[in-house]
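Table S2 (text version). Query chain:
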Amino acid sequence: QVQLVESGGGLVQAGASLRLSCAVSGRTFNRYAMAWFRQVPGKEREFVAAISSSGLSTYYADSVKGRFTISKDDAKNTLYLQMNSLKPEDTAVYYCTGRLNTNYGGYLYLSSNEYTYWGQGTQVTVSS
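Corresponding structure-token output:
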């Protein structure tokens, strides 16, 4: 069973930076497409960023484009989300998710129902 464990969340002021990490168990991480979603209580889970299994393709929600960067280190079985210029509206629980890629290496999965494995989430709070 694949397990995903997020870390790096916290309380920061607007304009600050945070880097989220997601450690993934298993031996086939380089075949996994990954993504970050976030959720605020009472709202649906929202797409943030996705990366292909090859690591060569990425996609971002308009709300974070230019501020957040998704990356993966296959040698460390770890997914990252670098978050810069944080805003109060970025406050949410951030979830790491992944799935085995069954398409070409640069394929991106953008919908939450396409993903198989989910982490427990890490809270990010941005104060104004």
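Notes on Table S2: The CA atoms of residues 9 and 124 lie 5 Å apart. The mean pLDDT is 96.
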